[in-house]
Amino acid sequence: MLSSKVINESHGQDSSYFLGWQEYEKNPFHETLNPSGIVQMGLAENQLSFDLIESWLDDHPEVLGLKKNEESVFKHLALFQDYHGLPAFKDAMAKFMEKIRGSKVKFNTNKMVLTAGSTSANETLMFCLANPGDAFLIPAPYYPGFDRDLKWRTGVEIVPIHCVSSNGYKITKEALEDAYERAHKLNLNVKGVLITNPSNPLGTSTTRGELDLLLTFTSAKKIHMVSDEIYSGTVFDSPEFTSVLEVAKDKNMDLDEKIHVVYSLSKDLGLPGFRVGLIYSNNEKVVSAATKMSSFGLISSQTQHLLANLLSDERFTTKYLEVNRKRLRERRDRLVSGLKKAGIGCLKSNGGLFCWVDLRHLLKSNTFEAEHSLWTKIVCEVGLNISPGSSCHSDEPGWFRVCFANMSDQTLEVAMDRVHGFVEAMVMNTNHGKQKRTMWDSRRRSLINKWVSKLSSVQCESER
């Protein structure tokens, strides 16, 4: 006999968001070993600036060697560490977060709780702020993983705040009130609002006006406001990033005990494998309880040691943020330009590691069944793993999240070639059935041969 947690399907991983990953893992693309494989465009990972971090590590070998002033710190790091974290690391994190926010917000390390990534931070906050059966309101479309991270072990419910493409998915007072009323009709006790700023999956930062509205709403309802700012350092275009804490300060709410921020280095520094996250809160009881809970998922001492040194280098962090933003903007532009050539548009974005792509014109009907059919074809036939809007709880069929920062320029070119070939085949062939499939299969084989030939040519040139 197993627990209900084990045998039920409430973990949320039966979503098409995770199923696309499973298909990718069966047949992953590789430029030379598997050029016909599936290209992973469903993973929000930042691989564009690893060279900057690796260069810093080359220049500071003593950090990886666990030495300080030529003395070994191995024993100090290897022995038991208090779960409050290394003071030097928390100081460095606070300064880095302040730099991202243009020094408009200050962070007190005594209000900071270290966690093993933002997944742990968000779940811990749910345990602290809500009971099983309580609800949080979240602007939709939202990150598919929240159905697992926020709900599975906590028993908390999510009620979507319905945002629409016609106004650029802005959060409105009407949408907030509607979500609140729907929750009450379901007999759910609303404990707060949670946003991701910038938005995952939209790639847009929350405006100052929206943040003001959210704080006014949560204050009037006497509920919590949680802002997941994991993508704050990726904002590469106007409007600039504005933290909820900055707006709270302007509204004289900067000491409000119902405002909480989540942060991580997984996206801004591209270090998801390091499992570095945190909760920032003015609520002493939340900080105390969350700190105790953090013992179930601590950040290793050697990781804290390494990153304390890296983030304390002001010259490095300034250069990194500047160069990384430039590279993200250039990569976004390449994706948008490539899709535009295929007649595909995107929501205008200014941050994140993805674009919200409009494929409504490729649907056979304006239904989520048609969206699922198109998604299946794109994953299994075109060979691109992208995330359908339905997995993000979008109200409108035909939108997809497409990631752009987890691959090389060459792989992105392969992806765009496949998109062009797929759209071209759909436009050129109005017939159905075998003939249409044959045309696309032929076009895809041609693209693969073209790519292999291009790679071979490059390799030959490098060998001369």
Can you give a write-up of this model?
The protein has 2 domains: 4-50 and 325-422, Alpha-Beta Complex (Aspartate Aminotransferase, domain 1); 61-317, Type I PLP-dependent aspartate aminotransferase-like (Major domain) (Aspartate Aminotransferase, domain 2, 3-Layer(aba) Sandwich), CATH 3.40.640. The chain is 46% helix and 13% strand. It contains 17 helices and 15 strands. It has helices at 4-7, 16-26, 50-59, 61-64, 74-78, 87-100, 117-129, 146-149, 173-185, 208-221, 244-250, 284-293, 301-312, 314-341, 368-382, 409-428, 434-463, and strands at 39-40, 67-68, 71-72, 112-115, 135-140, 157-162, 190-196, 224-228, 259-264, 277-281, 345-346, 354-358, 384-385, 387-388, 399-403. Strands 4-10-9-8-7-5-6 form a 7-stranded mixed β-sheet, with helices on both faces. Strand 5, helix 8 and strand 6 (157-162) form a beta-alpha-beta unit. Helix 7 (117-129) packs across helix 12 (284-293), helix 14 (314-341) runs parallel beside helix 16 (409-428) and helix 16 (409-428) packs antiparallel against helix 17 (434-463).
Task: Determine the fraction of residues in helical runs and give it as a percent range.
Answer: 40-55%
CATH homologous group name of the largest domain: Type I PLP-dependent aspartate aminotransferase-like (Major domain)
Q: Could you tell me the CATH topology label of the largest domain.
A: Aspartate Aminotransferase, domain 2
- Could you say which structural class the secondary elements and strand pairing correspond to? alpha/beta
Head-to-tail CA distance between termini: 65 Å
Number of helices, counting only DSSP H or I runs of 4 residues or more: 17
Query: Are there runs of 5+ residues with pLDDT below 50, and where?
Result: 454-464
- Placed side by side, the strands forming the largest sheet appear as 4-10-9-8-7-5-6
The value of Rg in angstroms is 23 Å
Summarize the biggest pleated sheet. Answer: 7 strands, mixed
Average the pLDDT over all residues and give the rounded result: 91
Q: How many E strands? A: 15
Based on CA inertia axes, which overall geometry fits?
Answer: globular
Range of strand content: 5-15%
Q: How many distinct folded domains?
A: 2
CATH class of the largest domain: Alpha Beta
CATH architecture of the largest domain: 3-Layer(aba) Sandwich
GO biological process, one term: ethylene biosynthetic process
Family: Belongs to the class-I pyridoxal-phosphate-dependent aminotransferase family.
Function: 1-aminocyclopropane-1-carboxylate synthase (ACS) enzymes catalyze the conversion of S-adenosyl-L-methionine (SAM) into 1-aminocyclopropane-1-carboxylate (ACC), a direct precursor of ethylene.
Domain Aminotransferase class I/classII large: 40-419
